[in-house]
Amino acid sequence: MNRLDPEGAIAEAAEAYSNWGRWGADDRIGTLNFLDEGKRREGAALVRRGTAFSLSQAFDMNGPQKGWRRRTNPVHTMLDTGSDAALGVQGFPHGLGGADDVIAMPLQCSTQWDGLGHIFDHGKAWNGRAAERVVTADGDLVTGIEHMAPHVAGRAVLLDVGRVIGVDGELPDGFAITEEHLTATAEAHGVAVGRGDLVLVRTGQLARARREGWGDYAGGPAPGLSFTTAGWLHRTEVAAIATDTWGFEVRPNEFEHAFQPLHQVAIPHIGLLIGEMWDLEALAEDCAADGVHDVWLTAAPLPITGAVGSPVSPVAVK
After folding, report:
1. Which of 53, 114, 199, 244 could pair covalently with 283 via S-S, beta carbons 3.0-4.6 A apart?
2. How far is Cα 115 from Cα 297, in angstroms, rounded to an integer?
3. SUPFAM superfamilies this protein is in (predicted)?
4. Which fold has domain 6-68+106-317?
C-alpha cells in the first residue's frame, strides 16, 4: 500500500472488490442480500436468556457533534406539556391532558447507519449508477434507506478488538485494525464470521470519550478499520458492520491527503451497510462474562423516504 497514492489504492480495491451487478441492475440493498431467511432463523436461535441490550447512544443536546458539515446534536422541543394540561389551556374535554414533542437533527448525529447513497466514487453511486441521478434535492431516488428497513435483523457477531488486542480494553486513537486483528479476535472469542452476519467491532473509544469527555470524538483521531480490510469485508460476505466510533475506519486515514478512503470502496463498490457511533459497552461486558459473542440483533433504520442515512436504536438479545 503506497501511502502517497490513495487514488491508485482506491481504484485497485474498487475493481477487485466490486459487487456491481451481483444482484442485478435494479438492486437497492447491497450486501443485505446476504442476510436471508435462513440467517434470520440462525440468529433467532441464539436467544437463550432473553436478555436485551440497547446499542444506541442518547439522542440529546449532550451528544458529540461539533458542527462539522453542519452536523449538530439533536434539538428536542416540547409542543405540549404537563403545565399546559394543568393550566387547562389545551382545550380538551373532561380533564384530558397530554404531552407532545418534536425533534430536529441531522440523521447521522448519533447512533446511525450510512445508507448506500451516502458516498460516491468519482461520480458513481452503488451499482455503478450516476450519482447525480441517484441523489438529488429530492433525496435518494433509488437506494433510499427505507428499502433497507425490513432487512436488518439476524445473527450479529461482536468482535471486541479493544479487549483482545488493546490495553485495558481500549485501542489508542489512530490504531489501524487489520484483517489479522479481526481474525485473531474472532478466534479468541470462539466465533466465526461469514455470509450474512452483522459484525459489531468494539474499539473502546466510546468508553474513553465518556470517561474523558467528547473531545474530537466526532471527526477526530480514532481507532478503526484499516483500508486493507476491504478484501476481508468483501470476501467474508458480511451483511453489515458497525463500530463504536464516529468514522468506522481509522483516523487519521492511512494515506497522505486522503479522507475516508475505505468508505469510498465499501459503500459504492461493495454495497456495504455501515453503522457508526454504536454503544457496545454493556453488550461487551456481558459477552466477556459469559464467553458468548454471537447474538440476535434487530437494527432497522427509520424508513425515511429518500434518506442517505438514518438514526437507529439497535437491540441485541442473548
Report:
1. 53
2. 18
3. Putative cyclase (SSF102198)
4. Glucose Oxidase; domain 1 (3.50.30)
CA distances for 278 relative to 55, 144, 212, 275, 314, angstroms: 6, 21, 18, 7, 8
Look up residue 136 and give its DSSP letter.
Answer: E
Q: Are 227 and 249 in contact (CB under 8 A)?
A: yes
**Residue type, position 145, single letter:** I
N-to-C CA span, the chain: 40
In this structure, which amino acid lies at residue 214? W
Q: Give me the residue spans of the domains in the chain.
A: 6-68+106-317, 73-104
Alpha carbons within 13 A on the beta-carbon side of 118? 25
**Burial grade of 257 (CB within 10 A; 0-12, 13-18, 19 or more):** exposed
